[in-house]
Design goal:
14 helices; 5 domains; about 600 residues; alpha+beta
């Protein structure tokens, strides 16, 4: 198809403002799917997406639409809305020329609306504001349009007003896409140049590569090369998503689709790579993407030691489909062999864990999460620390640095004071407040990332009764008075329970943690001491008393020395047990670190 009749666009919005519902209606109204095939969230094909009602992965679909007798090919990329998946949004925008910015007709501009709109503006996309949910009984369209102009700086005079749920005014969306979004630029006669914007692994057909053709064309039988990996392969199948995978004769300039090459090695296809012809291809790769920087890490261990290789394979498949997830092998004295996994945020971590347990039926032990830190040593080296076990001795450390994030809150005006107090309690630095109208305000703070990732989102929703939203971006590392807090069980350090905390909160967190561990670890035949320590200094202690059998129960009277003799014998036995006995630590105990942090918050 001639590229002037192609439109590539994305749908961006805050969580629950109707992205996936609008995508459903576009598919239905264009005839891409029939009424019988229609179901809500049709593009959300992961079980976790459907069960939780959120989009986790960006999805592509090709729509054919006729306007004024001319056929157009519209390539839609549906994107996630949660802050943890902002990287998916950026990848999608790089494959488009325009974006539909969906805003709720009642809630108006929210934190992720701002973040996603700026991301689209930064890559020079044509943005079409769409006010959704106009069928609600209570709406404030004029105020919302005013917010779009004042907060985002966009012209809202020709904004679309639709209801994705009922299908009202959906035709105006198609017309705006065709008339206002420019066709893709590119030279159909130039050597093939295609951007890999996503990929997934198929157990039967190998790696499925999602591509956007920038220059040239590709068809089955061509011999192509992945420029970053430097490998060549024959194209076995070329196709588009309608919305299921459907093979076609080839893809031309500006089109979006997929390639099958039979490659089975997950590491050979990387997101952001450039695909060209093996012979006579281009020498200039596309800019690609900045590598996502994981900021939250945790350990994942199979409950059964024999599941190590299976876990490695599943993590490899996940990292293939999600380039913002990383993992490396690690060993724990307490838990054995496992992996240190990196995520963009806590929701991202939760989604990966649930996909492993739900889709792959794996039994895992997951350690409490922690963020990435930097340590400047006395010899001038800067070390990146993503595992508390790697923190060197205090005498080696010149400066301990923690990640700082710029956080934007959009909250009802009445909650401004509460949010400011919440941020002050978490060592936040106030920047400024902007009022978006009489009812809402935007507050900017700089906060340590460790104070955000655990439960800031939950606290925000709680104090604002669900009306507050937030978006954050890591801006750098700052020196702080941080220490490594170890947990000792019966005098032995349990590496999987170590955490990095601020010195001012160390004692409180230590007391909270040992109390929780006392409730989680069952009684043994001997006394167990649970201690929190910074270096060699113990800052908190709880003791689990021994199970006590009444050895004198059969002594009915007689000389008291008989009872004393039995009690002394029991005491010596317990002493031997305490010396050689092993303490069983249940799986739930490893998550008490996270729970105690939430309680302290």
């Amino acid at each position: 198809m001639d590229s002037k009749f192609i439109r590539n666009f994305s749908i961006i919005a805050h969580i629950d403002h109707g992205k996936s519902t609008l995508a459903d209606q576009l598919l239905l109204k264009s005839g891409t799917i029939t009424e019988r095939e229609f179901r809500e969230q049709i593009l959300d094909d992961l079980d976790i997406e459907r069960s939780r009602g959120i989009t986790v992965k960006a999805r592509s679909v090709t729509i054919n639409y006729k306007l004024n007798g001319q056929n157009y090919e519209l390539n839609l990329i549906d994107t996630p809305g949660h802050v943890d998946f902002h990287y998916e949004v950026n990848r999608s925008l790089a494959a488009c020329e325009g974006a539909l910015l969906v805003v709720d007709a009642f809630q108006g501009v929210q934190a992720q609306t701002v973040a996603n709109a700026y991301a689209a503006i930064n890559v020079n996309l044509e943005i079409i504001p769409v006010v959704n949910k106009i069928d609600l009984p209570v709406i404030r369209v004029d105020e919302v349009l005013e917010e779009v102009e004042n907060v985002l700086g966009l012209d809202a005079s020709d904004a679309l007003r639709v209801s994705a749920k009922t299908g009202m005014n959906i035709e105006t969306v198609f017309e705006a896409i065709i008339k206002r979004i420019p066709p893709p630029a590119g030279n159909p006669n130039a050597p093939l140049k295609a951007l890999v914007f996503d990929s997934k692994y198929d157990n039967y057909r190998g790696v499925v590569t999602y591509i956007r053709i920038v220059d040239g064309s590709v068809k089955p039988g061509d011999k192509i090369k992945f420029m970053r990996a430097g490998i060549s392969s024959d194209v076995l199948e070329v196709g588009q998503f309608r919305p299921e995978m459907r093979a076609c004769g080839g893809l031309g300039t500006g089109q979006v689709g997929y390639l099958l090459t039979g490659i089975k090695d997950l590491s050979l296809v990387t997101v952001g790579d450039t695909v060209t012809m093996a012979v006579g291809g281009t020498d200039q790769p596309l800019p690609g993407y900045l590598k996502p920087k994981q900021m939250v890490f945790c350990g994942m261990y199979p409950i059964d030691a024999t599941g190590f290789e299976t876990l490695r394979e599943e993590l490899q498949k996940l990292s293939m489909n999600d380039s913002s997830f990383s993992f490396v092998p690690e060993t724990s004295d307490a838990l054995g062999f496992g992996f240190r996994c990196g995520f963009l945020g806590l929701l991202h971590m939760e989604i990966v864990q649930q996909r492993l347990e739900g889709e792959q039926d794996m039994d895992l032990i997951q350690t409490a999460p922690n963020v990435t830190y930097e340590i400047l040593t006395r010899d001038g080296q800067v070390r990146t620390i993503d595992n508390p076990q790697d923190v060197p001795d205090a005498g080696v450390i010149e400066e301990f640095r923690e990640p700082i994030a710029h956080v934007s809150f959009i909250v009802p005006s009445e909650n401004v004071g509460t949010i400011m107090q919440l941020c002050q309690d978490r060592r936040g630095i106030f920047k400024n407040t902007e009022f978006l109208g009489p009812q809402r305000a935007q507050i900017h703070y700089e906060l340590p990332l460790s104070e955000i990732v655990y439960d800031m989102y939950d606290k925000l929703k709680s104090v604002t009764r669900g009306y507050g939203t937030m978006d954050y971006e890591v801006i750098g590392f700052l020196a702080a008075d941080l220490v490594k807090m170890d947990i000792l069980v019966k005098g032995v350090r349990v590496d999987a329970l170590s955490t990095i905390v601020h010195r001012s909160t160390a004692e409180r967190r230590g007391r909270s943690l040992v109390k929780r561990l006392k409730n989680e670890i069952s009684k043994h035949q001997f006394e167990i001491a649970i201690q929190a320590a910074i270096g060699s200094r113990v800052i908190a202690r709880e003791t689990i008393s021994a199970l006590r059998k009444n050895v004198t129960s059969k002594c009915y009277g007689g000389d008291i020395t008989r009872k004393r003799k039995l009690l002394q014998k029991q005491k010596e036995g317990k002493k031997r047990m305490k010396q050689f006995g092993e303490v069983e630590i249940p799986q739930k105990a490893f998550l008490t670190v996270l729970e105690s942090n939430r309680e302290d918050g």
